[in-house]
Amino acid sequence: MTDQPELPLPAPPATGETPLVPARMVNEWVYCPRLAYLMWVEGEWAETGDTADGRRAHARVDRPAGKLPVPETTGMTGDDDAPPFVTRAVTLSSERLGAIAKMDVIEGAEGQVTPIDHKRGKRPHVDKGAYEPERVQVALQAMILEDAGYRVEEGALWYVESRERVRVVLDAELRDRTERAVSELRLAAGAGRRPPPLENSPKCPRCALAGICLPDEVNFFRKGQAPRMLNPADDPALPVHVQAPGARLRKSGETLTIETDDGTTKAPLVKVSELALYGPVSITTPALHELMRREIPVSWHSTGGWLLGHVVGTGATSPRTRAAQYRAAEEERAARRIAAGLVAAKIRNQRTMLRRNWKRADDPERATALDRLKHLAEGARQTPDTGVLLGLEGEAAAHYFGLFDGMITTENASFPAFAFDRRNRRPPADPVNAMLSFAYALATRLFTGALTAVGLDPYQGFYHAIRPGRPALSLDMMEPFRPILCDSTVLMAVNNGELTPADFVHNGPSCAMTTKGRKALIAAWERRLEQETTHPVFGYRVNMRRLVAVQCRLLARHLAGEVAEMPHYVPR
Known about the structure:
The chain is of the alpha/beta class. The chain has helices at about 25-30, 35-40, 50-55, 70-75, 130-145, 170-190, 210-215, 215-225, 285-295, 320-330, 330-355, 365-380, 385-400, 410-415, 430-455, 470-480, 480-495, 515-530, 545-560; strands spanning about 20, 85-95, 100-110, 110-120, 155-160, 165-170, 240, 250, 255-260, 265-270, 270-280, 280-285, 300, 305-310, 505, 510-515, 530-535, 540-545. It folds into three domains: about 20-35 and about 55-185, no CATH class; about 240-310, CATH 3.100.10.20; about 320-560, Four Helix Bundle (Hemerythrin (Met), subunit A) (Up-down Bundle). The strands form five sheets. Strands 1, 2, 3, 4, 5 and 6 form a six-stranded mixed β-sheet that branches. Strands 7-11-13-14 form a four-stranded mixed β-sheet. The relative contact order is 0.09.
C-alpha cells in the first residue's frame, strides 16, 4: 500500500441536493487536483487538439446501444447461467460514494459485469498496464456498479489507437485510492478551496487548461519561480464583425452563413472566436444556440459602435469568483488599491506612447510633459483617495492629449480634418476623436467578453462608478490598455493613410465614421491585437489579444488571494 495522508474526515454520503462527482473528474483529480477543481467546481474548459481527438475516439461509445439487465432479475448477482450482453453509454450513480459515471461499455457474462473505458492513443508500457488516473476512473465505475447490485471482479481499459485491452485489477489498494480521491475532491469543492498549481510539472505544457490555470504565473508570485511559456498557442480563431445594414446570419452545418445584399459569406464556426454585430443585423435562434454551446460570445452594437448587449453560454460562471470580486469591491482599501494600480499603469503607458511615437523635433513642452507624467504615475500608485486619483488621471490626460497631435505624422497632421487639440466626445467633434471613441467601444466589447469568460462580473468595478448598463469593470481593466491598444490603433490607421477625410461625415458639431471608415479601423484594430509583445512580468512572448485574456485571468487570481499584487501591463 502506498503511504497516503489521512483525511481529517471522509466526505459524507450524497443527498438529493448534493452534486455527484463525475468519474472523469476523479480521474482528473488524481492527475492534477487543480485541474479537476477548475473543471468541475468552477466550470472552466478549453478545447485543444488532444481533447478533440478524445471526443472523436468516444464518438461510437457515446451512442447508447444494448440494454443493461436489472441485477435482481437476471442473475447478475451471481447466476453463472445469465446470458452474456454488451451495452454502451450507460449512466449510473452511487449516493454512498457521491459519484456518477457515464460508462463507455459494460460487458456481462457468467453472472458478472465488466466496465470498459475507452481511451484515445496507445497503451502505455507502465507498471500495472495503465496510469493511475485511468485505473482509478475504471475502479470508480466498478464500485458504482457494485452499489447498484452487480457483481464486478475487474475492469478494463481499451486504447483506441493501438487497439489493446488492459485489465484493471480491483485490489484493496486501488479501491482505497479511488474512495480517497472521490472524498478529497468532494471536500475541496464543499470548502471552496482551489488547490495550488503543480510546480514545474511536465504535465502543464500539454494541459488544455494551462492558459486558464496559469500555473507558472501563480507560482511566480507564490515562490518566485520563473514561468515557462505554458500558455497554449494563440487561438487561430478570429472575431467576425458584421456591420452591413440588413445582414442576416444563420447556421448551416458547421458553418456560419452571412447573407448581405452584396452576396453570401461563409465562416467555419471553428474559426470564429467571437461575433460582433453593428446596427440592423439579424441572427437566427439556431445560430445563437450553436454559438452559445461553443462558448463563442456575441455582442450587439449600435451602428456607431456603442455596446448595447452581450451574450455567451453558461461557461465559467463560478459564483465563488464573483463573490471574491464583490467582497473586494465592498472593502474600500482593496478597491482603492486596485484602482490606483490601474490608473498608475495607464499614466505610465501614456508616457510611453509620447516617448516612443513623437514625430516632431525635440520639444521642451514634451520633455516637461514626460517628467510630469512620471510624477503623476508615482502619485497615483500611492494615493489612498479616489477623489485625488481622479484628479491625477485628469491632469495626466490633459498633458497627454495636449500633445497627441505630435504623434501624427507631419503629412497627415497637415490635413485640417486630422487636426487635434483636445479629447472630446458625446458626440466627437472631429475625425481623430471619432476614431478614438470607436476604438474605445471596440475595447469595451473585448474586455467585457474576456472578463465574462473568466467568470467575473463586468458591471462591478473598482474605479469607475457603477451605473445601470455600464460595464464598470471592463472600463477599469481597459485603462492601462487605452494608450497601448486604442490610441496606437488610431495613430497607426492615420499615419499609414488607411483612413482619409472622405471616411468621415459631419452633422453640425458632430463627426462620425462612414461604414468604409469603420471597416478600415476594425481591420487596423484586429491587426494590433495580433501583434506580439513581451510580458513585462513573465518575460514570454504573447499577442495582445492573448495578453488581455491573461490580465483578466490574473485579476481573478488576485481577487481569490493567489496573487498578492495585481501585475499590470506596462511596457518599457
